[in-house]
Design goal:
With 365 residues, the chain is α/β, with parallel strands linked by helices. It contains 13 helices and 9 strands. Bound molecules: iron/sulfur cluster (2 copies).
């Protein structure tokens, strides 16, 4: 399935132009030939909540079509394959590896590198793998302050002795090793070469089905493509037509402050909806539930820093001049980093906190 690799690494169906081996068999021979080998694929999770794995299961009966079209040879969350099974594959033998989750530990980086070697194409699946996602917000803190909080300061830490797990512990029975907890969270493409991206937190069933159909089809998009809509969410939101021609904001409202009018654009009502700067494809699921878009489908093409784009968009809408009014409007966004970089801090230009993180008991940064 790569498409950018030597032909010898391609699965048999990739040269046919009719990728599903069963479709090929029935078209060419009326079903009399034995089935061709299905393309092998792997699914793996790194720093992930598991939602992306569940999203695959949420395909419901369409999962059966996936199973019919491909041979899943590695999927730790659902099947009992071992890492050694992957290591035993020839380089490039997998047609594709779908990897969700960001990279935070040495084990995740090693698995990503292994799957990269074995796969013709690597697909960063979901916001965490593509942009760093929610786990990427940990980049607002240093590794040391996270460990300090988790093992000493957190309210649920009752023993108070501050003991931290060792990366290596030797016992008479043998040596136990834990992965290294890296200094920061990285996106998948900050660790390995990535061929395609599937947006969403998690990707919706339709997004997944469309992405699979694109990958299994003969007409592949250029390497680096995001397999999703190329238009903003507003374009597919049914409230878009209620937006005034010139939209301005005089104040920003928190979602709990008002009961929004159901048939009116949320942004028009002062609720910070990031639909204008977010890639569409989710069919405005959150907006349909009267919740604003928080940006999980990521930036549109050509945008280098999603958060900066969102800040610029909101700033351009604010119709306030007096400094006190500007301050009041900005104060209604109590967590700017969490609002604008909720899914994309590791992929942003800054990547992580630039000032030293506050240390427990120390001066605030
Ligand atoms: S993209 Fe969202 S659903 Fe998928 S692993 Fe990350 S947090 Fe979970
Ligand atoms: S700003 Fe939000 S509510 Fe308004 S049209 Fe765009 S996606 Fe819909």
């Amino acid at each position: 399935m790569d498409f950018n690799r030597p032909t010898s690494a391609r699965p048999p169906w990739a040269t046919c132009g009719v990728p599903n081996p069963y479709i090929r068999r029935s078209r060419c021979s009326g079903g009399r030939l034995p089935p061709l080998a299905k393309p092998k694929v792997a699914l793996y999770w790194c720093a992930s909540c598991g939602g992306c794995e569940e999203a695959v299961v949420d395909l419901n009966e369409a999962v059966l079509d996936v199973v019919e079209a491909v041979d899943i040879v590695f999927w730790p969350v659902a099947m009992d394959f071992k890492v050694s099974d992957v290591a035993a594959l020839q380089d490039g033998e997998l047609a594709a590896a779908f990897i969700n989750g960001a990279i935070r530990t040495s084990e995740q980086a090693e698995m990503a590198e292994l799957l990269r070697r074995k796969a013709g194409a690597v697909v960063a699946f979901g916001a965490c793998a593509w942009l760093g996602g929610i786990p990427g917000l940990a980049n607002l803190y240093s590794r040391e302050s996270i460990l300090e909080f988790v093992y000493r300061e957190s309210p649920s830490t009752t023993d108070g002795d501050g003991v931290r797990p060792l990366e290596e512990f030797r016992a008479p029975e043998g040596t136990v090793r834990l992965p290294h907890f890296d200094e920061d969270v990285r996106t998948l493409d900050q660790v390995i070469d990535v061929d395609y991206y599937v947006p969403g937190c998690p990707p919706t069933p339709k997004t997944i089905a469309d992405a699979l159909s694109t990958l299994l089809g003969g007409d592949l998009p250029p390497k680096g493509s995001v397999l999703g809509s190329s238009r903003s969410l507003c374009y597919e939101c049914e409230l878009n037509e209620t937006k005034p021609e010139k939209l301005t904001l005089t104040e920003v409202k928190r979602v709990w402050e008002i009961i929004p009018e159901p048939d009116k654009c949320l942004l028009t009502q002062g609720i910070l909806c990031l639909g204008p700067v977010t890639r569409g494809g989710c069919e405005a699921l959150c907006v349909k539930a009267h919740m604003p878009c928080t940006g999980c489908f990521g930036p549109l093409g050509g945008v280098q820093d999603y958060g900066a784009k969102g800040i610029a968009a909101v700033a351009s809408l604010l119709d306030v001049i007096e400094e006190a009014d500007v301050k009041a409007a900005v104060e209604k966004i109590p967590d700017p980093a969490g609002t604008f970089y909720r899914y994309s801090l590791p992929a942003s230009l800054l990547h992580h906190r630039v000032e030293p993180a506050p240390t427990p008991g120390g001066p605030a940064a």
